[in-house]
Amino acid sequence: MIQVPQYTRDLLPADFSNDPSAFVHAFQRVETVARASFHRYGFQEIRTPIFERTELFARGVGLETDIVSKEMFTWLDRGGDDHEGESLTLRPENTAPVVRAYIQHQMWTKSDLVKLFYIGPQFRRERGQRGRFRQFFQVGAEVLGSNDHPAIDAEAIEMLMGLLAELGIGDTELRINSVGDEECRPRFVEMIRRELADKIHLMSEATRQRYETNPLRILDSKAEEDQPFIENLPSTIELLNTECRDHFEAVCRYLESRGIRFRIEPRLVRGLDYYTKTVFEVVSFSDAIGAQNALLGGGRYDKLAETLGGPPTKGFGFALGLDRIVMALPETTAGPGRPDLFIVHLGAAAFEKGLLLAREARTAGIACAIDFEKRSPKSALRLANKLKARFALILGENELESGQWTLRSMADSSQETIPASDWLASILAAIGSVRNAE
Ligand code: HAM
Fold first, then answer.
1. Which of 40, 10, 330, 15 is nearest to 169 (CA)?
2. What is the pTM of this model?
């Protein structure tokens, strides 16, 4: 038997899975709520390819990041055409692709502030565990333009927190920090190198390496032996220049004025190199979520467009990990598969008639199922029950002859006779009234 590749999974209709965190319908529900929220906040959808030139991520996300140095699915194209030998990569994230599209389509010429959202799979070659997959799904948004007003940061965070509340996801914490700009960054690095110089030999191997290549990411280390040293480091917020500090304080004020609770987390640096100023994450304390408890993350990236060869552009965005959001949902609804109408037929002529009626019903917007076996009416009704059909239309020879058909309410087994000439209207009315009552 061939199974899915390691650390990937099938998302399934609820009927075929015992794992609510893999129910397709739960994913759809989050996507629907997110789309409505994006619409209210003025975001438009963008769909970029699921693979891009490797260089985009190397330059955009940063060569020293775990994502680029270890986790990308990269291959050399062997198309046999002009691009033979080109290095391509399954996208590990969607911010660099969106900024690439912004530049490629010169979006700034059409609008000062471009607000885009995306929903789709991302790929990272990580070691799988609860809430961590090699193909996972993100819902994300990016605000691009000339403006870096702190109210933009606060508004996006407001939208996110509203989205979590609407989905009923509680027990979370919003953590926020500022990683400064190109003027603050060398100060951070200098401080970290200085403070850890005589301790670095006691720290984890990854941290020793980062000390050389990317000292800021030491703050993000999860290694236990590193924690006491990291906790004792001075806060980077103290090292921000005036502009970055003003920006950060304004974001915090805007959040406070909206009643959004947050914690300033001076160790939060995030695993992508493009960030400047604001960075944030929301973690979940729900029992359903394991150690991988970051539900979403994001921040400001005011240099990314230039890094990718575009004009100076300010950027702010975030991405929710859909797989983790679904795990944190309070309850999972059963899914939309429930038919309004199930057609029960007795005899060959009734079956043929039933097939045509099913088509008409569906065209009229009714979710309709029909029995393709020669079941007895009794066992067909049992099946209708199992499918949670709202009504059954019973057609036998007598019914066909008399033009008086039987409509059965599956909820209370009551039956009424409906005229063949007006069957669709009768059924639509019956469905409408039970749906209103549900
Ligand atoms: P990120 O923090 O790498 O940020 O990913 C965002 C979210 O995606 C995480 O908080 C997590 O919920 C989910 N996630 C990441 N890796 C996995 C995985 N292997 N399995 C399951 N879920 C995962 C970004 O990707 C940035 N592009 C966010 C952003 C947008 N920043 C600015 N704009």
1. 330
2. 0.91
